[in-house]
Specification:
Number of helices: 3
Strand order of the largest sheet: 1-2-3
Distance between the termini: 78 Å
Number of strands: 3
Order of helices and strands: HHEEHE
Largest sheet: 3 strands, mixed
Structural class: alpha+beta
Radius of gyration: 23 Å
Strand content: 15-25%
Length: 107
Amino acid sequence: MTMTKRFASGFASAFLALSLLSMAGCGSTPTRNSPGGYIDDTVITTKVKAAFVKDPDLKATEIKVETFKGTVQLSGFVDTQEAAARAGSVARGVEGVKDVKNDIRLK
């Protein structure tokens, strides 16, 4: 094998290894979302907030919504236990929601 072919082969191998390592950094872990997962969660959060705005029985500005890997966490303060339960029910009805953790408290 000539020197040029050896160099090209070594360069191609190094490039492939570097490419694979950089792609591994984009995957999700149990505590970190992938870029695509982050976008999906952002869409779910937006849909849940929009559903709260549409519901006349809920004060959407009093409920915080966070999403991680399809699990929605609700927090904030509401006037009644019924409002807290209603928020959980509305969130569960949103497409893409896998689970809801309802941490809403009464005022």
